[in-house]
């Protein structure tokens, strides 16, 4: 797997969108693939929680006939956590502070999701 390419995507998001504090890419089952997080964040725990949250959101979208889930955002008193589906097998979680422009985040992350999906599919095609 091209971990450097994943790291570049995560860093690129931080550079494009002010307010991003942490990012991680995880498999849909919650296993961490890559992380760019502060020392105060447990990346493996974040990956597991994000996968669980995304799974619930997917089931909700399906049960309510809303189509394929694209993203879900949880807002807290100190910022937000945005989860984006990367195909059916992975996700990216983006944490942001109170100043995060969520609309800008959604636009930037949409393009990054496509590139991350391509990186992950390349790994699968190689059989790694």
Question: Describe it for me?
Answer:
47% of the residues lie in helices and 27% in strands. The protein contains three helices and five strands; from the N terminus they run αββαβββα. With 128 residues, it is α+β, with helices and mostly antiparallel strands. α1 (3-16) packs antiparallel against α3 (102-126). It starts with a helix and ends with a helix. It has a five-stranded antiparallel beta sheet, sandwiched between helices. It has helices spanning 3-16, 43-63, 102-126, and strands at 20-27, 32-36, 71-76, 79-86, 90-96.
Features of this protein?
128 residues, alpha+beta, single chain, five-stranded antiparallel beta sheet
- Biggest sheet: strands, sense, closure? 5 strands, antiparallel
Mean pLDDT: 92
Rg: 14 Å
Beta-strand residue fraction: 25-35%
Give the overall form: globular
Order of strands, main sheet, comes to 2-1-5-4-3
Question: DSSP helix count?
Answer: 3
Kindly state the percentage of residues in helix: 40-55%
Secondary-structure element series: HEEHEEEH
Class computed from helices, strands and strand pairing: alpha+beta
Give the low-confidence spans.
Answer: none
Q: Care to count the β-strands?
A: 5
Q: Determine the N-to-C terminus distance.
A: 7 Å
Summarize the structure.
The chain is of the alpha+beta class. It contains 3 helices and 5 strands; from the N terminus they run H-E-E-H-E-E-E-H.
């Amino acid at each position: 797997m091209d971990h450097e390419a994943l790291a570049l995507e995560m860093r690129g998001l931080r550079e494009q969108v002010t307010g991003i504090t942490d990012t991680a890419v995880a498999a849909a089952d919650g296993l961490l693939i890559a992380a760019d997080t502060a020392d105060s964040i447990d990346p493996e725990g974040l990956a597991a929680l994000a996968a669980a949250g995304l799974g619930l959101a997917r089931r909700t979208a399906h049960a309510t006939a809303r189509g394929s889930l694209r993203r879900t955002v949880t807002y807290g008193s100190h910022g937000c956590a945005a989860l984006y589906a990367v195909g059916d097998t992975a996700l990216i979680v983006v944490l942001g502070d109170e100043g995060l422009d969520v609309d800008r985040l959604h636009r930037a992350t949409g393009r990054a999701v496509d590139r991350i999906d391509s990186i992950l599919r390349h790994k699968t095609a190689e059989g790694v």
